[in-house]
Amino acid sequence: MDSKYNIVSIIRKKRDGQTLEKEEIQHLIREYTADAIPDYQVSAFLMACFLNGLNDEESAALTESMLHSGTVVDLSEISGKKVDKHSTGGVGDKLSLILAPIVAAAGVPVPMISGRGLGHTGGTLDKLESIPGFTVDMNLDRYKEIIGKHNLVLAGQTAEIAPADKRLYALRDVTATVESIPLIAGSIMSKKLAEGIDALVLDVKAGSGAFMKTTEDAIKLGEALVGIGTQFEKETIAYVTNMNQPLGYKIGNWLEVEECIDAMHGEGPDDIMEITHLLSGTMIYLGGKADNVKEGIEISKKMIASGAAFQKWLDIVEEQGGDVEMIKSPNKYPKAEYEFVIKADCDGYLSEMNSYEIGMASVEMGAGRKKKEDDVDPQAGIILKKKIGDKISKGETILMGYTNKPSAIEAASDKLFGAVTIAESKPDDTHLVSHIIDKDGSRAFEL
Q1: What CATH number should be reported for the domain holding residue 413?
Q2: 183 plus 231 within the same structural domain
Q3: 366-372 long-range contacts, Cβ below 8 Å, gap at least 24?
Q4: Host domain of residue 356
Q5: Residue 66 maps to a domain
Q6: Does the annotation count 30 as an active-site position?
Q7: Which listed site, 38, 251, 295, 378, has its alpha carbon 20 to 30 Å from 424?
Q8: Active site residue 371
Q9: Catalytic residue among 82, 86, 94, 289, which?
Q10: Is the domain of 166 the same as that of 249?
Q11: Same domain as 345, residue 302
Q12: Is 150 a catalytic residue?
């Protein structure tokens, strides 16, 4: 083997802040996919990338290498523009489960391949698998069959699609290398470009519950993602949205499915519905079913009001083996064995919520995973009784916790109590959406 492609030399080069050649990145990804490089060496490479970054050329090479580590799906036999959505991850972010049926019901094919929970954020696949019987594992023939039949498929990464990303994704979760713009961008875009899309909408989270803590970093990530999409000639629009408190009122896999069911009946929380309709409307616009985003939003609302979105949801749950009766009657779902409450210790207004700590508390309770091989408990989670800006009295319940791990209650309670701040004055309102990013760059969001 050429010494310039020695894996230790590649790690050392990136560790020392040097720029890798495209061929070196291609070699590393190819060898890792072929099981010729152990996890510990790739973990060292990821940490070197995390600490020293990747430039635009390196990021493009990483994305392309992961994209072509497997099959790039051809959905040309499916009529219409295929559009997907991706979120960079947040606490209580269950929007994919609501908007995918909305957009499919509006006539836009949605080939959605999702991931599992990373760190403190929930994963779409974990939520879907909390539905008894629902399967996200399928081969590409089945993937194409379902989207051809329903205009929608909700799948996990198959062995054929971006296998390098699937393996790196799991490693990043347990090596503290998640919060890296080039690694996030490469992971997202390799997977999305491989699934057969024509256009993509991105929800880039910013705040305490996001991987990007500041709006500035979220914009940088959004620009990186849109740049890759544009480079691959896929129309891509990103929004920067607020993750300084959880989305909606429910956190945890089945609890979030319950909130999605409410949303598809037109009874979802305001923040959930506002961002859902914006993302859905943008997807409907990019899919050619609306002349602009505003019109797309109106179509999205009609899909909810008419019941078409909920029917599409029932259809896809049934098609993918899920228990439809549990969706129709979610109150029949078994509850966690233990519950506890966090109460206010003074009067005032709820002024801050540390979404990261809330997310980590849910992981302690079983709703997420600390190691890539961990199972998640679909019953575990948190229900918020108050959100930022709400008036609260001493002794009033702020949130409720649900778990099957009694040993986790004390640590989770401490995290949750410390995650909320009560102040004497009501905090200023904040916008849910701050920026839009497209091929023309980033700018303040206005509808």
Answers
A1: 3.90.1170.30
A2: yes
A3: 366/403, 366/404, 366/405, 366/408, 367/122, 367/251, 367/252, 367/253, 368/117, 368/119, 368/120, 368/121, 368/122, 368/126, 369/116, 369/117, 369/173, 370/174, 371/174, 372/170, 372/171, 372/173, 372/174
A4: 335-423
A5: no
A6: no
A7: 251
A8: no
A9: 86
A10: yes
A11: no
A12: no
Joined together, the tokens standing for residue 333 give: 């779902």
Q: Residues 82, 94, 172, 205: which is the catalytic one? A: 172
Residue by residue, pLDDT tens for the chain (447 residues) are 445 689 999 999 999 999 999 999 999 999 999 999 999 999 999 999 999 999 988 998 999 999 999 999 999 999 999 999 999 888 999 999 999 999 999 999 999 988 776 666 768 999 999 999 999 999 889 999 999 999 999 998 777 888 998 899 889 978 999 888 999 899 889 989 998 899 999 999 999 988 889 999 999 999 999 999 988 899 999 999 999 999 999 999 999 999 999 999 999 999 999 999 999 999 999 999 999 999 999 999 999 999 999 999 999 999 999 999 999 999 999 999 999 999 999 999 999 999 999 999 999 999 987 776 778 999 999 999 999 999 999 999 999 999 999 999 999 999 999 999 999 999 998 899 999 999 999 999 998
As given in the structure block, the two tokens for residue 354 are: 């540390």
Asked if the structure places residue 65 within a domain, the reply is no
Active-site hit among 82, 144, 191, 435? 191
Residue 165 among the catalytic residues: yes
39 catalytic per annotation: no
Note the pTM of the prediction, 2 decimals. 0.91
Q: Which of 93, 165, 198, 377 is catalytic?
A: 165
